Amino acid sequence: MLIHRNQFFLILTIILWISCNNVERKIEPSFYYWKQSFDLTGTEQTYLKELKVKRTYIKFFDIKWSKVTNTPYIVAPISFKSSIPSFLDIIPTIYITNNALSSCSEENIKNLADLIIKNIKEAALSQDISIKGIQIDCDWSLSTKDKYFHLLQFIRNSMPKGELSATIRLHQVKFYKKTGIPPVDRGTLMFYNMDAVTDNATNNSILDLEVAQQYFYNFDEYKIPLDIALPLFKWGVVQRRGRVVQLINHLNNKQLSNSQRFQKTKNNHYRVLESHYLNGFYIYKNDQIRLESVSKETLKRSAQLLNQQIQKDTLLNLTYYHLDSTILEEFSIQDIQTINNQF
Q1: What is the per-residue pLDDT across 233-261, written as a single tens digit (0 to 9) for each?
Q2: DSSP assignment of 33-96, as one string?
Q3: C-alpha–C-alpha distance, residues 223 and 38, integer Å
Q4: In contact, 165 and 187? CB cutoff 8 Å
Q5: In sequence order, what DSSP letters do the residues of 224-279 get, joined into one string?
Q6: Whether 36 contacts 23, CB under 8 Å
Q7: CA dihedral 337, 340, 342, 343 (to 10 degrees)
Q8: Is the CA virtual torsion 319, 322, 325, 327 positive or negative?
């Protein structure tokens, strides 16, 4: 049977289109390590090995702004109490407050980049860590966008080797024409902290799929590959006279079950009946506590929804926040594998 040349090219185009849209994607599970002291527990090492984790994003330090010296400075530098497992690649991760960017003059942005690189190198050298990349975590605003993007460019030009990545929020994808796309190799979409924790009307500031889906726009137009970060943490939001005064990590219903100290007012909401210490924090009578957490089913559904949005790159780094034995008690290795398998 003879095929007309135009028909041949049409068939070839269709075959190529199908091939390009059926790329087998490799899922690389990883974790954030967000504690100030690096000291892996046996449980944490087991999760890393069983899940075949090859990289971990370790927060090396924060960058804040000093009103005293009128300069950026290093906060909460990590200390290493145990060695890095030989099977792990380490991605130094730096958190920068938006205030630090806002306060820093454009002329000093390069100095800020030099400060970041210098301290990363010193920390890595002290532990004989080979830097495979750097990630910058900053929720930049329209007013700090230009400074932030210049900072990233300076870091890219000065970093030893590897990929430069940045964290991305949902609103920065939906409104990318305003917020811009950072000059990095990859972005990590932070699929949590998506609603205002300070708003009394907020149901779950960590992860609310109804809120999240309001931002499911423009993923196909975003010009850098996106990875995913999912939350494993939970906390209690303490309000006093209508104002959030404290976030208490790892808080759960069982800890608020004492009816002499707490009154359940509605689902996951409690009123404090007497002043006392709770997990090291002093809470007062009539304080309100809202418990927030993320279920396994919500994470599974999140993965399914994100799989429909994220461009089918050949690699997807799926990072969990964060590696902590206390948190992992509620998420088995099989639970995390099930979530991974949704992509």
Answers
A1: 999 999 999 999 999 999 999 999 999 99
A2: E--SEE---HHHHHHHHHTT--EEEEEEEEEEEETTTTEEEEES--EESSPPPTT-EEEEEEEE
A3: 34
A4: yes
A5: S-EEEEEE---EEEEEETTEEEEEEET--GGGG--TTTEEEEETTEEEE-S-EEET
A6: no
A7: -150
A8: negative
Using CA atoms, how far apart are residues 165 and 137, in angstroms rounded to an integer?
9
Kindly state the percentage of the chain with pLDDT values over 70: 93
Q: Is the pLDDT of residue 325 over 90?
A: yes
pLDDT at 159 over 50: yes
Among all chains, which residue has been given the structure tokens 């924060």? 62
Global pTM? 0.91
Cα(342)–Cα(203) distance, integer angstroms: 26
Mode of pairing for the β-strands spanning 288-292 and 269-272? antiparallel
Between CA 317 and CA 228 the distance in angstroms is 6
What are residue 187's DSSP bridge partners?
A: 166, 226
| Amino acid at site 27 | I
3-class DSSP assignment, residue 13:
helix
Please, what are the domains in the chain? 26-233+294-340 (3.20.20.80), 240-283 (no CATH)
